[in-house]
Design a protein that fits this description.
Elements lengths: L1 E4 H14 L4 E7 L5 H11 L14 E5 L4 E6 L14 H7 L2 E5 L13 E7 L5 E6 L1
Parallel strand pairs: 2-5, 2-6, 4-5
Antiparallel strand pairs: 1-7, 3-4, 6-7
Helix pairs in contact: 1-2
Length: 135
Amino acid sequence: MRELTETQLVAEGEELGQSLPAGAILLFEGDLGAGKTTFIRAIARGLGVVSSATSPTYSLVHRYPGRRGPVFHLDCYRLQDPEEAADLDWEALLDEGDAVLIEWPEKAGAWVPEPTMRFRLTHLDDPGRRALESF
């Protein structure tokens, strides 16, 4: 686990996005406000997304054009039951996506595909810093 400022988190996200293989599936865990969307926004920029990625909390999925193809950002926070994730078109997301970035994957249960990488972001006592863990 590493402690990062928001500036460092953004720089790391952009660098990660530039180096991800096509078809990468990334999972992001952490409390509300821990920095998941900030990190995802930076990764999306690294993947060539020009518009600012926003959290798809209510729509569940946002699709952004990236350098090599679509980048999908999913936010499963509002799912009340993992079976609701069955309504997401997982096959299309995985077939078409240059990258699939999933917040709150635990809410989607077994529907979540095997990840390329998994991250956990955590609040720290210093509000300007976050803990980032990859596992």
